[in-house]
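Pinned message: reference record for prolyl oligopeptidase
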Amino acid sequence: MKKLPFLALALSIFVSCKNETESMKPITVDYPQTQKVDTIDTYFDVAVADPYRWLEDDRSTETEAWVKAQNKVTYNYLDQIPYRKALKERLTTLWNYEKIGAPFKEGDYTYFYKNDGLQNQYVIYRYKTGADPSTAEVFLDPNSFKEDGTISLGGTSFSKDGKTLAYAISEGGSDWRKILIMNTETKTIVEDTLVDIKFSGMSWYKNEGFYYSSYDKPKGSELSAKTDQHKVYYHKLGTPQSEDQLIYGGTREEKHRYIYATVTEDDRYLVITPRVSTSGNKLYIKDLSVANAPLIEILGHTNSDSNIIENVGTKLYIATNLDAPNEKIVTVEASHPTPEHWVDFIPETKNVLTPTTAGGYFFAHYMVDAVSKVFQYDYEGQLVRAVELPGIGTAGGFSAKKEETELYYSFANYVTPGSIYKYSIESGASELYKKPNIDFNPEDYESKQVFYTSKDGTKVPMIITHKKGLRLNGENPTILYGYGGFNVSLTPSFSIANAVWMEQGGVYAVPNLRGGGEYGKAWHDAGTKLQKQNVFDDFIAAAEYLISEKYTTSDFLAIRGGSNGGLLVGATMTQRPELMKVALPAVGVLDMLRYHTFTAGAGWAYDYGTAEDTKEMFNYLKGYSPVHNVKEGTAYPATLVTTGDHDDRVVPAHSFKFAAELQSKQTGENPTLIRIETDAGHGAGTPVSKTIEQFADIYGFTLYNMGFKTLPTALEK
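Predicted structure (tokens):
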């Protein structure tokens, strides 16, 4: 077994005390021995070794023993970081404030989510609509599902009269769900639990039943076995799940990996959106007012993201990026709904559109350089007003039922904790509804948007946030966070964990990389398949900008990202290991030759392509796949890989194999560790207690390996 001492030199003491020369205590790491096996795959006559293939078996005693051994080593290291406890205490203190969600009406009640501060899961409260909100009672408390908070609420849906609730639960962070059905008056469960449900909404038809989606339970491990035939079912209240009606999927030759079904607000139409991958969908409708009505095809291809967002009788309003990369809204009659009959309603602009409806109006939410702008339109397509937002940041919400006269929206940015505003739909007046009482002063911080140049000359925006008065001396601990994929947009948001990082003098920088959705379909496509390297180049250029502008240097730079962002970190650190001091890949897609063989991974091929597509695609994927590009004799940055043992979105084998490669081949003194959370999945529903512990470990590891011996005395009181 390797036995290496890791000494993070005391280059500086955090923030104000930077001239100490006393060495830090070395931490000895004794890595577990990871067995290698002679597994070889052949792609286009090229043999590729996979020595850690055995770690893909999440049910084996050998993998279980490996996980325990790795965690023992990792926690032994983390336990010796002198200020880890202080970080956890500060995170706990700052996290401990009341958080309340926007109210919404269902039946005779007004509901809202609330967390008293450190509750592992949000609790649903309610009061009679029109009554004093102070009379609210607990309606559903997910903290009662399991003492440690590892069973979470995975979604809710009320019947049209509000008298019945279908709610999903997730156990241990898994994407597999169970659905329970409750009488909202008595708060009692009224039917047997529906099981084996995954990637599903719950959409009610009147008060009679609801539509949901799932896969057949796979053979082998439910946490890693492939699931790629999604199906839509209808569950009628009062009947067993075995009698649920198959509505769509499972019988066609083409695999639809994600199929969603929704019922329009007036109960007139069932809308079905089959997807082969995470981008692009077909579109069908069924007239539920006509007995045995056929399924009508609107789009029979997956060349666009298109969905029905509203209807007035038989007039359909469709949000689409078909021939409109930044999205638009069109109208069409349900009797002849195909694209040749579409009429522009809200035309495409140079900014990306995300529309919602509320109170008989449309709200057009645009991203302008990743910042929110919102406009209100009537049902004739006439602009009513530009919504006056509280500042520069991200607004969310602007959704309500057609009969409502007011709505609630949220607003936040990197220095402004999320607040809720009440908006009069007719007058356009906004008023503050709930502002969090948090021990954080936004006036002490600043966010600045810059545009830097990537390798090929593309201008990329980045928002840099830190304490006011920051000295640009290259010695500021900096986290560069990115994603860059799946049309996901990183817009300004507030994070308690980031607040703790910044209040210690840290810089937090977020670039809007290609592959994301900030500039529409073209921006997304520019970071997919054979153009995926653009994403890594954009991230590398962001790091170089921060260094050139003296925010930081390589000795004080950490890169962080999760899921597709974990791939981003893995690829960047293997391509430019000298560029950063710390790498933090979380729940990452790290084996690009086999990602599509697990769970629903084949649905990511729009962004990545697969190793079986063509020889060119295979060579491209192998050229950046993190697991396949860890090289002997290379000094990699200090690395803390994080994953969850119940992650069935990006299976933990990705992280296991990457950590094993790093530990086998790392040269130099930087530790390469893996932290494997138990009873945790891809992130959603993770208990607050586990989240706090994880950030304390991540920040402690990061600062220790940047050479910081102590934290500011404010944390040590």
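Pinned by admin. Summary line: The mean pLDDT is 91.
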